[in-house]
Design brief:
With 266 residues, the protein is of the alpha+beta class. It contains five helices and 14 strands. The protein starts with a strand and ends with a strand.
């Protein structure tokens, strides 16, 4: 069985003790990381190598950034979303690679889309988010049409359903929940990808994120933001999709819990 993890770590260097603990205890084969906030120059490649993982990253100084940790060689690495929207500076939110068995893995950190605090009427970030989701959906459609097996995971920054948040009304008007964003996420779902987190965790109050503020973790004021999708031909091989909720309770951890796939190997 192959264990694949996705985790928004909110700064890879700040979370190294927690990451090391998690990797040793859970022994994943592949890890998707989001919000690494690091570039090639300061990413801890050597530390991960000592834990048995090679790493490839799409980094950005102080913001965003995604990466793979893998016990297997990764090839055909793509570090920018094909035909994605442009920004200055370039936002590191996408990385893709191919596993030795031919599966394509894609790690994403979707834009938040919230306006700048000093200009609450500015919609440019929301516009960027919608364009980004459109480009991701088009890319997935192209891969599916080519017959490739796909595993897509990450932090999608969408509250898809009112039951995915502790209080939907408190997020009225938020870029996580506005109809245009939900519609963009629905178009991604309509490509034929199978949402494994949703499938294996069908109950309400299934969360993957608890803010550092408001005592959100002890009060269970959570949001479901993190997902794993697979192409239809992989659905039958997925034995479980889990949210490692207990990790959110660790000291000095991220505000996101890791999520995981367990895939039966042929």
């Amino acid at each position: 069985m192959q264990r694949i993890i996705s985790w928004n770590v909110a700064s890879v260097r700040s979370r190294m003790p927690v990451l090391e603990k998690f990797l040793k205890e859970y022994q994943p084969d592949i890890v998707f990381l989001q919000e690494i906030k690091a570039t090639e120059e300061n990413f801890p490649f050597v530390d991960f190598k000592g834990l048995g993982y090679d790493a490839v990253i799409s980094g950005q100084k102080a913001y965003n950034g995604v990466a793979f940790l893998s016990k297997f060689p990764l090839t055909d690495v793509i570090r920018e979303l094909p035909n994605g929207p442009k920004s200055d500076p370039t936002q590191a939110r996408f990385i893709q690679a191919t596993l030795p068995d031919g599966k394509i893995i894609i790690c994403v950190y979707a834009p938040n889309g919230a306006p700048p605090m000093n200009n609450p009427t500015d919609t440019s970030r929301l516009d960027y988010k919608l364009l980004w989701f459109n480009a991701l959906t088009n890319h997935i459609q192209n891969l599916l049409q080519s017959g490739r097996q796909i595993i897509l995971g990450g932090d999608f920054n969408v509250i898809e359903r009112d039951t995915d948040v502790y209080n939907a009304k408190s997020f009225d008007g938020s870029a996580l929940i506005v109809p245009l964003v939900r519609q963009a996420f629905e178009r991604l779902n309509q490509t034929g990808l199978k949402n494994m987190i949703r499938q294996f965790n069908p109950t309400e109050k299934t969360y993957s994120f608890w803010d550092f503020q408001m005592g959100a973790w002890p009060r269970n004021l959570g949001i479901l933001l993190d997902f794993f999708f697979v192409s239809p031909d992989l659905e039958g091989s997925v034995e479980n999709a889990v949210i490692y909720r207990e990790v959110r309770g660790w000291q000095k951890t991220s505000d996101h819990a890791p999520i995981g796939l367990q895939i039966k190997l042929n």
